[in-house]
Write a structure and sequence with these properties.
single chain; 138 residues; Nucleotidyltransferase, domain 5; 17% strand; elongated
Amino acid sequence: MRKKPSHAAEEADVDITPLLDIVFILLIFFIVTATFLREKGIDVRTPEDTPPDDAVVPPPALLLAVQEDGFVRVNNVRVIDPASVKPVVQEFVAREPQGVVLVSAAPDSESGVAVRVMDQAQDGGARAVSLALQKEQQ
């Protein structure tokens, strides 16, 4: 005797509700227990948009331009290694005690090199160190 195939074959359904519950509980657990770290950075103050005063004479400035290759151009004349910035700044401060140092970074230069140059300038005794970005050439 043959058995008759059942006409109403039931499909097996998988209930995923408990799986979703577990996933959401794990998500909440990881969000609550996550450690939120504060990123360290440099405090950069941008200048206000005020028109320049023609009567004010700017102080003498030393321009340190960080190039894409990692070297530093001093006053657009000579090229030095970033580690050699401190003696150059010390010489400038000895000549111009009220002078300021302007660090100009190329768009494709590494930011770490610009930060090292700024640190070297401060260690060299610069009264004020400013950071500027060069515009990309088209």
